[in-house]
Each structure stands twice: as C-alpha cells, then as structure tokens.
Inverse folding.
C-alpha cells in the first residue's frame, strides 16, 4: 500500500472507475465532547440509581419496623408522632375528652403501668384527679415494638411522673406475653383491679353486654349460604381484612349497613360484593354491621405501599390547603377513629384498600360519598400522595371498638 | 487535511462557504447537546436550587405564610408553638377562658393560614385599629380579647372572663400571628384577608330557604340539629353552630353577612365556593336564627336597649322575633362553668 | 476499511463488557439461595395445583411479578409489594409471565383468600364479573345430583347454577385453588432482597 491512496486523476472529471475514498480525519471535537458528556451522564445516573436503591433499602427497613423517628431522645419523637395528637405535646390532654398525663396517678405509678396501658388500651371511664373521662384509649400492641413501648413508657414517666427508671425492652416483651389475651382494661377500676396499683378512687365500668350473634348470622359469616361465600373467607375470621380487602372490625354499624346497601344499589361497584349482598335482607345487613362494629382486633395493617410517611402524616394531620385538601382528621376525628356514621374510622385500615378507594373516587368508580367530598379530595391528591396517606393511616392503632351498641350510642348521643 | 481538500476540489458542487457553514452548524449543534446534557445532569443532581420543583408550588396568588417545619427554635419558637397549640385547641390550652365548644381554628381554617378565612397573616399588620364595635383604638391583644369574650363566650368559662390584659395567652398567640405574617406588608389591606363579602341578592335572605340548604350541605358534618359532632373520645370534631355550645350574640359570626361570607368562601370544607350567593345568605340566616348565649355586653340592659346600642342596622336577628321567639335573650347559664371538674 | 483487528477487539470487548454487566454480575448478585422467613415450600397439593397452573397456560395471561410503585400502581391494585428474587425461591420454573391480560397473581392468595370464591370464579368467571374475558373451566367440576360425603360444593348465583343437582369441585380444581391461595408474598421483603425500585423522580412529587 502506498502512502497516498488517492487515484491520480483530475477530480473534476471523474471517470467510471471513480472510487469514493475517505480521508483520515481526527474525530471532530463535538462528537468527542458528546461521547464524554454522555459517558459522564451515564455514570452519574448509575450512581444516582444506586443512591435511590440505598434509600429504598433504608425506607423498607423503616417501614418494617414502623420506626417513627430516631431522634436523640427516642421517646420524645415517638411521643410527638403517636401520642401528642390526643394527649397534646405538653401532656395536658384535652379538656373533657382526653385525660392529662401530667399529674395523673396512672403515670405516677411508673413505667410498667404505662407500658401495660399502652399494650392493652382502656375502655370505659377513668378518673384523673377531679375529672372523669369516658373515652377510649386504643391498644398500641400491634403498632409499637417492645423497644418503642419501653422508650415511650420511660419517656412519659420521666417527664410527667416521678420515676427515672428506664424500662427495658425485655420487660416489655415479658409483659406483652402476659397481657396478650386479656383485652382492654375495663375502665379505671379495671386498671386498679388488674394491676393492684393505687389509683385513687376509680369509677366502675358499666359492662355493656355485646350482642349475641344468632346461629343464622354466624353461619352467614363463617360458612356462607347458597350462592354466597362466607364473609370470613375474605375478610378474615375476625374481620381484620388483608391487602385490598378492608378491615371491618370496629367500623360503625350504620356505615357497614350503608355500604352493603350501596353495593346492592350499584352506588359502589365491586362485583364480588354485589354477588354477596344480592341475597342479604335488611335485617341481615344490620346484624352483620352490629357484629363487625363490636369486634376488637389488633391491627394487621402495615404501610407497605412505599409511600412517604412524613407526607402522609402531614396530609392526615394538617392537610394541604394549597390543594384545598383539609386534613383527614378534621372530619374523621383527631386520631382517625371516625365520627358518627358518615366518617368511618381510617386508623389501621389496610394501605392498599385505602389507596385503591382514593383512586376509585378520583377515577369516578366510587361515588357514594356525602356531598362528593371524597371525590374532590381524592382528585386533588396525586398518586404518590394517596399512597403516602394510605401508608400513614395503616400505621396507626386501630379504633378501640366497644360493643356495637356503645359506638352507636356515642355517635347518636352527640 | 480538510482545508487541503477544500482547496483541491474547488469545483465540487458544495462551495467552501457552504462547507464551513455546515461545519459550524455541526459544532453549534454539538455544543448545544453538550450544554443540554450537562445542564440536565446539574438539574438532576439538584445543583440548581432555584429550579427545583419544591419552590414552584406558590400557586394561589395569595401571601404564603411559613409552614410548620419552618418554625424557629429557641424561646421565640417555643412561644410560637404554644401560640399555635392555643389557636388549634383553645379549650385545652386556654381552658380557664373558653365557655363553649369552639377553638380559634374553627373559624380561622388551615391553622390560621387559609385566605378568606380571616387569616392571621393578613390580620397582624392591621392592628392597632379603630373599631366602631367598642369605639376605641384596638390593639391585637384587644382584638383577641374580643374573640374570647364573644366567639369563645368566656363568661361561661371557669374564670368567667377573657384572659386579663398582659396574659401569656396573648403573648403566645401574638408570637404565632407575628410569625405567620413573616414578610407580610404592614398596615395594608391584603388580598385574602378577612372573610370577604357576598353581594346582596334580590331575594334577600330567609331562614326557611336556608333550612333546606343546611340539610343538604351542612348537616352531614354539623349534624341535623347544628350541634356539631364529637369523636368517640368526646372531642368536638365539627363545632356546634348555635345553642349554648356556640358563639354568643356579640360575635361577628352572628351577623348574617359575615357568616354568609365565611360560609361561601370556606364551606363545605374542601369544597369552598360551591354555594351560590343566595344559598350562602339563606343558610347563614338559618344558622343565626337560633338562640345562642347572650351578648356579653348586655349587662343589666334589656335586649332592646342592647340591640339599639350594639346591633342597630346590622344584618342580625338579635332583638327580633323569629318563629314567635324573641332572639337575644340568651341560652340558659350552665349549671357549672364549661370545663369545670365534676 | 481494512483494519479488522481493532474492530474485532473493540466489538468483542463491548460484548464481553455487556455480558459481564448484564449476565454475570446480576447472576452473582442474585445467586444467594436463601428463602425468606415468611415463605413456605409448596405442599404436595399446592405443587399439583402448580402443575395444573403451568399445564393450562395461566402464564399466558397472568404475570407473577408486582412492580414498584414508581413503575405501576400495582400496590393500589392490591397486587402487593414489588417482588424480590427470594420470593421465587421455591418456584422452578418461575411463572413470572409477561402478559397482563388478567391481573398479577403473585399475591392473589392474600387479596382473595376465599377458597369458595376461587371455585366459583374458576367454574364461571362471569358469575362474578360479567365483563370478564377469562375462560371458564367447567371441566374441572362435576355436576352431581347430590353432594356426597367430602364433596366441596361450589357456591353459585341462581342464574349460573345447574337446573338440577349441585356443582362439585374435582381434586384438580381444589389443587389449583390451593396453589392460588398459597400465592402470598405479603411478608416483609428480605432486607437484602434485590428488587428494581424503578426511577423515582426528584422531589418525589408525583
């Protein structure tokens, strides 16, 4: 090969043997620049994705542990996130509704009692100093780990009691095992009786007899009938629900009856439920509502949609007024326990169910909300917001349902 | 090399000038691509803070007060936090001075931020101010004292009176308002301040028509009897609109025009602006056609004297007969002050 | 262009690099054989049902791989958290699938835990969803004049029930249902589980 491969010919008059040729040319710098820039970009993207993966890992760990904050003072962050909604950040409670922690005989008796109450919850009246409180403290057993219960109980008693003892997680684990099957304390008298602590004079618990379930209704719930599947086969033996099958335990009777009616009338579209309600009489609907309203089951809901829990908490507690979205709690009650029959409990509902219902409202597949309130709120939320708020609500303790009667009374009495 | 080619082939169809043009175009295009790629990289990595999405959410056109996570630390921040707690939950955090079931936040929505819900960022720069209501210059403290006296019906509270001048309650509330108004202009009527107005309608207002509007739009939350609803722990979630648990006859909300504006601009919650002017007037008239605690200024005067002195010419049913009942007499005093221990 | 050597070296190099990054490295990363604590091996019955699932080609319409929220709203559909490689520990061959003519089934046992629902649905999907395009599987069932001891009777709305007698599930239908109910990966994902978390835009706004 010669050094110069060009044919020796006048290029102005190419003959038929003309061969196209290519000159040796250096790569033009724009091309080089583009390649290098793309390379850098690609490498950066790789790095970026790695960062996302790491963050997702961290979030997954946090979600699993339901960690609400690893602040310097662990109990404090947990208190702010989970207790302050009712007991207030300063521990003074709410006049006439939520008992104070400051100066309370229950807190003065040390962290074991506080941990016990957190694990079991209280139903029925208690007396704190001169005031009577007839409310419901939910059980946090399904929400907090032993470590978290220990941290919170120690924090509460060191701040408002006179104890400086730090409760150990192992003690909480032992306590949890002991009280697992006992259910809620029955009023202040129940606390005093069960634990033997001195708690001044406590009102007695007027036991509301829960409605016995008739054999027919029981068969409907657990065995099904004719062309119907049993309720329990999807909603669980205790109405606890799973994934996008909702938790029914503790929902108000009237709310359940309304929903069953809406399925039958096509105001709420769910093919499986349409089959089930087709053969239910009104009496049966009510009996089922009473049964599920009276169930008390620990939460099995978990925030597993990968939503941003902080954003979810913000939406639930403050709302986002730039979207004209008031907080969930401004209608569904300050702890998401529901208000009367129009605003059902949201706490401990399964995240996929909550998110799918919000999406259904936004998409027009569910249209049975009063004044179209939920339709508008859901449409204003982005998909990420819906996941976030559904996840946050799933992380809350369940509504401390009493008997169906008791709830109905509360709802109507006010 | 390339220049050599250009010299050697002068008669090629493409002129040298055109070649150079193409070349510079390639260079320019390449440069643009590189800049775009680097720019995208910078944007992605968040190195251009001004371009981030978070800063573009100012959409409403109203003044944007700071959000809760911007609360300062230190003694002032603590005061702001206490002020917000009082604002949100007045019956608990100013328990000695609240004689009904209301909180500041019931009328000032969005933690006192919502435009046309008498937002505190707009109110802060408007005081001191002359008010005909008491014919004197009112400071912010005087104004809030008025809220306790009328909207929170302090005479039925444990102390029987609003917090005295100089009380820490005022200090903390004013810290909160001052902080909400960070960056707001002083002594200026701000867009979104107050409750707004609803134009008068031809038909005027009527409680009878309002009753239907109420049943259709309000009863879901405030209950059919207007007494609000509580959660299972007995906390008010929806405030009572009339009767002993609501604001008294001296409150601004007892005037039908004020209530109509508040309702149209804020209710139903999450769906403001859905009621027509007529509906807003009618339902405001309905809500304010029931008896409520008596005007705190009445003292030993008769209802008619009080009406002439304080309510003359207002859109209010005070001192008038509605459905055969003289309004303004006041609901009976409670057996025990509101919130007193049993 | 006569310089074949550099061309071959470069192209082979690219191929080798791609193989390393796309085949060998992921292989090493995923070759961590450890079943998650919440995952049980299939029982004999479930395994038989799994064979039926394979032989009837369910795979052609149903995937078994829920996606991350950033990629698809599978979580809101109730299809469960994004799957990780360990979720398929006992699946050989896995039934990932690529078509979603019907819903994803990896967590169908969690979201539809009712055996009787599944039997009805297999017998006649239109008995529940009138718009369903899923084929019916009546050959998995038997119409008998009367249910015998141990028979599982299928609950059917009147318009889909036979005029005479009852519909009874065959063993194959029960196996298939058992397999479907065993599809439940709702336990927390193992912390070292590999999953594609998708692309999360900055600010997480949408």
């Amino acid at each position: 090969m010669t050094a110069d491969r060009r044919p020796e010919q006048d290029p102005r008059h190419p003959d038929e043997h003309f061969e196209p040729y290519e000159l040796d040319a250096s790569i033009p710098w724009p091309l080089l620049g583009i390649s290098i820039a793309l390379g850098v970009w690609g490498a950066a993207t790789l790095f970026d994705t790695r960062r996302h993966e790491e963050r997702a890992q961290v979030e997954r760990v946090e979600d699993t542990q339901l960690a609400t904050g690893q602040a310097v003072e662990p109990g404090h962050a947990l208190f702010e996130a989970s207790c302050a909604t009712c007991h207030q950040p300063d521990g003074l409670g709410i006049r006439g509704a939520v008992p104070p922690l400051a100066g309370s005989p229950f807190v003065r008796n040390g962290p074991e009692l506080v941990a016990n109450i957190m694990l079991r919850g209280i139903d029925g009246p208690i007396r704190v100093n001169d005031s009577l409180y007839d409310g419901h403290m939910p059980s946090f057993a399904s929400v907090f780990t032993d470590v978290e219960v220990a941290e919170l109980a120690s924090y509460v008693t060191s701040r408002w009691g006179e104890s400086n003892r730090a409760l150990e997680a192992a003690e909480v684990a032992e306590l949890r095992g002991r009280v697992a099957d006992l259910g809620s304390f029955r009023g202040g008298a129940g606390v005093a009786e069960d634990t033997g602590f001195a708690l001044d004079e406590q009102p007695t618990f007027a036991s509301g007899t829960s409605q016995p379930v008739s054999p027919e209704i029981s068969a409907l719930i657990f065995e099904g009938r004719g062309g119907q599947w049993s309720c329990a086969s999807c909603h669980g033996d205790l109405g606890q629900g799973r994934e996008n099958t909702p938790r029914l335990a503790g929902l108000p009777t009237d709310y359940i009856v309304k929903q069953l009616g809406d399925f039958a009338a096509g105001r709420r579209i769910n093919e499986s439920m349409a089959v089930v309600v087709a053969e239910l009489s009104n009496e049966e609907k009510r009996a089922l509502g009473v049964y599920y309203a009276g169930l008390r089951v620990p939460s099995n809901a978990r925030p597993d949609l990968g939503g941003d829990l902080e954003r979810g908490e913000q939406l639930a507690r403050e709302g986002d007024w730039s979207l004209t979205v008031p907080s969930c709690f401004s209608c569904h009650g300050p702890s998401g326990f529901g208000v009367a029959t129009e605003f059902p409990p949201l706490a401990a509902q399964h995240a996929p169910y909550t998110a799918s219902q919000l999406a259904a409202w936004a998409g027009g597949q569910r249209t049975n909300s009063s004044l179209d309130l939920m339709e508008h709120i859901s449409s204003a939320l982005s998909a990420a917001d819906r996941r976030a708020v559904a996840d946050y609500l799933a992380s809350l303790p369940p509504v401390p349902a009493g008997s169906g009667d008791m709830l109905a009374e509360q709802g109507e009495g006010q | 090399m390339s220049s050599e080619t250009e010299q050697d082939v002068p008669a090629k169809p493409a002129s040298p000038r055109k070649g150079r043009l193409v070349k510079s175009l390639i260079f320019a295009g390449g440069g643009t691509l590189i800049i775009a790629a680097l720019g995208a990289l910078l944007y992605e990595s968040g190195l251009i803070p001004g371009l981030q999405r978070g800063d573009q959410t100012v959409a409403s056109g109203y003044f944007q007060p700071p959000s809760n996570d911007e609360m300062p630390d230190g003694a002032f921040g603590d005061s702001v936090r206490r002020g917000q707690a009082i604002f949100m939950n007045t019956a608990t955090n100013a328990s000695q001075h609240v004689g009904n079931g209301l909180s500041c936040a019931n009328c000032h929505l969005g933690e006192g931020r919502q435009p046309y819900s008498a937002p505190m960022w707009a109110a802060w720069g408007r005081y001191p101010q002359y008010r005909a209501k008491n014919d004197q210059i009112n400071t912010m403290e005087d104004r809030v004292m008025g809220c306790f006296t009328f909207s929170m019906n302090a005479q039925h509270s444990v102390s029987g009176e609003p917090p005295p001048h100089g009380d820490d309650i005022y200090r903390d509330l004013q810290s909160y308002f001052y902080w909400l108004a960070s960056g707001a202009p002083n002594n200026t009527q701000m867009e979104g301040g107050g409750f707004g107005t609803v134009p008068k309608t031809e038909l005027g207002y009527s409680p009878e028509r309002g009753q239907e509007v109420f049943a259709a739009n309000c009863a879901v939350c405030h209950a059919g009897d207007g007494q609000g609803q509580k959660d299972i722990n007995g906390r008010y979630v929806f405030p009572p609109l009339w009767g002993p648990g609501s604001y008294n006859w001296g409150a601004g909300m007892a005037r039908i025009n004020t209530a109509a504006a508040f309702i149209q601009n804020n209710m139903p919650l999450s769906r403001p602006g859905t009621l027509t002017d007529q509906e807003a007037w009618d339902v405001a008239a309905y809500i304010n056609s029931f008896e409520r605690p008596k005007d705190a200024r009445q003292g030993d005067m008769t209802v008619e004297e009080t009406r002439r002195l304080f309510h003359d010419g207002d859109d209010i049913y005070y001192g008038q007969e509605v459905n055969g009942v003289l309004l303004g007499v006041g609901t009976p005093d409670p057996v025990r002050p509101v919130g007193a221990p049993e | 262009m006569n310089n074949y050597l550099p061309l071959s070296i470069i192209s082979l190099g690219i191929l080798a690099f791609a193989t390393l990054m796309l085949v060998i490295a992921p292989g090493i990363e995923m070759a961590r054989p450890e079943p998650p604590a919440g995952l049980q091996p299939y029982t004999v019955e479930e395994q038989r049902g799994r064979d039926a699932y394979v032989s009837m080609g369910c795979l052609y319409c149903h995937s078994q791989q829920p996606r991350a929220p950033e990629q698809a709203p599978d979580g809101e559909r109730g299809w469960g958290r994004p799957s990780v490689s360990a979720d398929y520990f006992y699946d050989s061959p896995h039934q990932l699938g690529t078509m979603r003519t019907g819903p994803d089934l990896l967590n169908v046992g969690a979201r539809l835990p009712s055996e009787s629902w599944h039997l009805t649905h297999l017998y006649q999907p239109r008995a529940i969803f009138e718009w369903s395009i899923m084929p019916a599987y009546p050959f998995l069932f038997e119409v008998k004049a009367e249910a015998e001891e141990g028979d599982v009777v299928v609950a059917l709305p009147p318009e889909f029930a036979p005029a005479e007698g009852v519909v009874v599930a065959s063993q194959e239908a029960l196996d298939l249902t058992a397999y479907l109910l065993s599809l439940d990966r709702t336990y927390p994902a193992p912390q070292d589980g590999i999953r594609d978390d998708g692309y999360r835009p900055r600010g997480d706004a949408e």
Observations:
- Chain A has 18 helices and three strands.
- The CA atoms of residues 211 and 291 of chain A lie 7 Å apart.
- Chain A touches chain C at residues 49, 52-53, 56-57, 60-61, 63-64, 224, 226-230, 233-234, 236, 242-245, 271-272, 275, 278, 302, 304-308, 311, 351-353, 355-356, 359, 382-384, 386-387 (CB under 8 Å).
